Amino acid sequence: MNSNAIARGFTLIEVMIVVAIVAILASIALPSYQDYIRRGQLPEAFSTLSDYRIKLEQYYQDNRAYSTNGTCGNGSLSFPPTGAKYFSFSCTTSGTYQAYTLTATGSTGQAVGHIYTLNQDGAKGTTRFKGDSANRTCWLITGSEC
Fold first, then answer.
1. What's the order of all strands across the beta sheet hosting 99-106?
2. pLDDT of residue 4
3. How far is residue 89's CA from residue 118's CA, in Å, rounded to a whole number?
4. Residue 69 has pLDDT above 90, yes or no
5. pTM (global) more than 0.90
């Protein structure tokens, strides 16, 4: 080889430094992206719970009870909703059908590990957030609100 030839290319150390930098960036970006996806899936629970609260209040205005047979709205509200993608929903009545609790439980995607509630008084609650127990009196999205 000619001693005046210019070496071209990367050394192994340079490639390893680039790989390390990419790995560090990925370890920061992936959790942030997953959190972004999770926050995009949570509004399904909030909007559905709010929608069913309105429907149950309308049912109560007509019947003076949230149920007569133990099923919220006596099955006239098509509950649980069809087409829910990330949450499963349930409704329970209590007392003499003068109270109810709507519950949204994360079932797929990044919503798994989240449980939100809403009752007849409009009291919101988060009982599980990101898989951990969280007895909060609001609907948590990022984990620091309320």
1. 87-94, 99-106, 115-119, 124-129, 132-136
2. 67
3. 11
4. no
5. no
